[in-house]
Amino acid sequence: MNIGRTGDADPPAGTAADGADAHRWWGLVVIALAQLMVVLDATIVNIALPSAQRALHMSDGNRQWVITAYTLAFGGLLLLGGRIADLAGRKHTFVIGLIGFAAASALGGAATDSGMLFGARALQGVFAAVLAPSALSLLTTTFTDPRERSKAFGIYGALAGSGSAIGFIVGGLLTEYLDWRWCLYVNVPIAITAVLGAFALLHDRPGHTDARLDVPGVLLGCGGLVAIVYGFSEAEPLGWTDPLVLTLFAAGAVLLLAFVWWQNRAPSPLLPLHIVRDRNRAGCFLTMMLAVIGMFGLFLFMTYYLQVILGYSPVRAGLAFLPLTAAIITGSTQISARLLHHVAPRMLMVPGMLLAATGLLLLTRMTVHSSYAGEILPALILMGLGMGLTFMPVFATATSGVAPRDSGVTSATVNTSQQVGGSIGTALLNTIATTSSATYITTHLHSPARKAAVVPAGVVHGYTVAISWAAGVMLLAGLIAGLMVTAKAPGHGTPAKTPLPESVA
Questions:
Q1: Cα distance between residue 259 and residue 218, in whole Å
Q2: What is the mean pLDDT of residues 237-261?
Q3: Around Cβ 440, how many Cβ atoms within 10 Å?
Q4: In this structure, are 378 and 251 located in the same domain?
Q5: Where a domain ends, among 234, 250, 267?
Q6: Is the pTM of this model over 0.70?
Q7: Closest by Cα among 320, 318, 45 to 186
Q8: Interhelix angle for 279-304 vs 346-363, to 10°?
Q9: Same domain, 290 and 423
Q10: Contact status, residue 328 vs residue 373, Cβ threshold 8 Å
Q11: Which among 379, 388, 377 is positioned nearest to 358, based on CA atoms?
């Protein structure tokens, strides 16, 4: 039994002599399948959205809920999902999350009206909130050797970073050659495969049934996150100064402050505060949130730029993201995974954010007539390499040294920062782009005859202004990583960092 885990059950059958799971690499395939499904579902319906809108007669004002219903439920309930994984056992919640996600996907694919689709997408988010932290914490407890851990987190980080881009590719292919409904149906066979693999390959220690679920913490923490994510989603159509948006932000801030106050007093806290008091972990959470703000802004604008400005088909627009995906995978598995046990995490994260910011700055030069190969492709490659260098050490560092019973909620906090960052990035940068475009068009449109030339130029101008803000956010993420993440490189062949007891603050 590993030192520092006294009291845990003995490893189950199917473990190697050194205590490692003999099937751990096949188990990684199962975990990776589930994580890919969860991440790509945040974007797979983006390209399919125009087709779904026509089929279900959605209004322009309501169509955003196909995206927002998923991210709202996902981001708002992740902490609860992480704690449930710790209490009930990670393998059990992993399987329940897979089954529920598949059922919700089938329901959405069979939707006969917009309300049914919105509800199914929200239900997907609920089960994703259970599934995602279970997957990451299973990975954390399965791979304890530093070298193997680096490789495993390299693969996981590549999927987390590239899953959204893969979603665009898969969504374009399914929409153009089958039907938009297959963007949801495709999850069913993936989930069934992962469930069968989980039963055969994954092992887990029993859940801590003696601990209680922190109900006030659930209401305060999840309520605060839902209010803030909902506020950012409403800021796009209503404006930042709308009374509803301001009320949601204020309510979210009050609820989260009350949540922090209660976590200091709760007998079984939903989020043990020693997890976020750790300097390295807090730095990773902030770096992740800021990095995803910039990345989601890129996805949003490039999708519209390629299809609306350059006239790409859904498939061609999806495939245009393929170099970004390849660069993320390369940066994560071939660079970060090989270097993490030699260098400190921030020596990967800071250069990664600088590369990503450079890629975004290159995109600020794009025009209505930019060429993909000459101007867009180099930026996507730099962005992908940067995100690949960053995501893998963030996941590995944030989940290192956590007590086994807290691994689920720690994993959920990483995912929460990712989802909240995505929601903030989409709303904030889209508002900046829309405002800048409107100002440009008003200033340059002197006669109706010029409208055909001015409007596209104004739209692209809005994109470039927002992307420049995204580049600034990436630089801020690099600064935070450099100042806050002070963890050293894991030693060669040394045991994984001994987890702290839950009582240690």
A1: 9
A2: 90
A3: 19
A4: no
A5: 267
A6: yes
A7: 45
A8: 20
A9: yes
A10: no
A11: 379
